[in-house]
Design brief:
Chain lengths: 214, 214
DNA sequence: CAGTGTGAAGTTGTTCACAGCA
DNA sequence: TGCTGTGAACAACTTCACACTG
């Protein structure tokens, strides 16, 4: 959802804001469990070691209104943020490559709770193929075309070995996938209309090591 | 390592640069396997769908020099980037919480290859405690203090349930951990001298869903 | 002339300063 | 006074323009 500024033109939500919102959400849920009803932007800011104005701006993108002197209603924050991030609307995903990481993602309840439903896994290892994990069947990769028509998905998650990332992406794109979530450090070439989001622990590791050593 | 500008003062490496470098590295390694000896910034840029000047600037932080009309030497790029990111120097880490994600991290060879050695796991589940995964022993959490003195580490990885993140962080900080890699979406409060790096798949998921739906 | 390398301009994101409100 | 909310100033990052090099 886009916001509108006071000139009526459409402005984008900053990516950093989108990336921070799930963290806030988790904080709000913890507050709710502790019976907290209202929270101010400065309280949120102090929990995340950041400037309170930035919290205000982030939250303003979701459209929520705070009450002056009181703060924001926690229940309303939770609802509004979940809605804003589309964490309440089910989105199907295919998982390519069922190794350690792939298995961890299937087992991870969190993704399902936040709207992402892995509907099928694909692999080429005969030892994994035709087994099930948490009720999700792992199919041979060559069955991808046929199966994906029956239970379609817009998102393809790539957790294959690095060297197979591009071929799997090509396959998914040819079928008509809309977004690729790439967990390999490998760069992937796709047509401009396909969304790619890269998640690599190496990026985080690089930041940690650099901060430790400097 | 910091760079020096032409006035002799020290300038910081931008975080986005640090986050991109591991991706480049993976690309360089693939080039090497394919026998490529030189690569230009525009070739790198096109693989990652980005501006070639940005690649140049990123690489300049590592201190590498390219040859005009020829590009950068691939072997030298690999060596230089690995060195710059400290991916060649061993760094010990403790893992707190050996669930699906924790197990995946232990099994993930990549971290070890890039300098991060998980030396011990800690959990409170009697079913996991005192077992071993890939030769790494999982200890009861209460043994943390004693054990951590024998095989010390500077990094603590938190893959516990969200609600235990803070208490485990407190424990690690009290012992003297230097950096915390927090895989829970929960925010963690630590003293200013302790580094915290948050890794949450929800941030990436939020970006994907937003781009899909807008 | 096809590449690196870099200062300047432009864009995006964050912080500051302050208006308005209960 | 303590809070939200927002335009303006500032800082960080990216892109542009161009000098330089073999």
């Amino acid at each position: 959802m886009k916001n509108r500024n006071n000139h009526g033109s459409s402005i984008q939500v900053p990516i950093p804001t989108l990336r921070r919102l799930p963290g806030y959400l988790s904080f709000f849920k913890a507050l709710k469990i502790n019976g907290v009803v209202y929270v101010s932007s400065s309280q949120i800011a102090s929990a995340f070691n950041m400037d309170s104005t930035l919290v205000t701006k982030d939250l303003s993108h979701t459209g929520i209104k705070g009450r002056t002197k009181v703060g924001y209603n926690v229940d309303q924050l939770i609802d509004t943020v979940i809605n804003f991030l589309d964490f309440n609307s089910r989105e199907n995903a295919f998982l390519f490559g069922v190794g350690n990481l792939g298995r961890a993602l299937i087992n991870y309840e969190g993704l399902r709770h936040y709207g992402l439903e892995i509907v099928a896994g694909f692999d080429i290892d005969p030892g994994i193929v035709n087994t099930s994990i948490k009720g999700i069947k792992i199919h041979p990769l060559e069955e991808f075309r046929d199966l994906s028509v029956k239970v379609p998905a817009r998102i393809g998650i790539i957790t294959t070995p690095d060297s197979n990332a591009q071929e799997v992406a090509d396959l998914a794109v040819a079928w008509g996938i809309k977004a690729i979530w790439n967990f390999t450090p490998q760069s992937i070439k796709v047509p401009a209309n396909v969304i790619v989001e890269n998640t690599s622990v190496y990026s985080d590791l690089a930041v940690i090591l650099h901060r430790l050593n400097n």
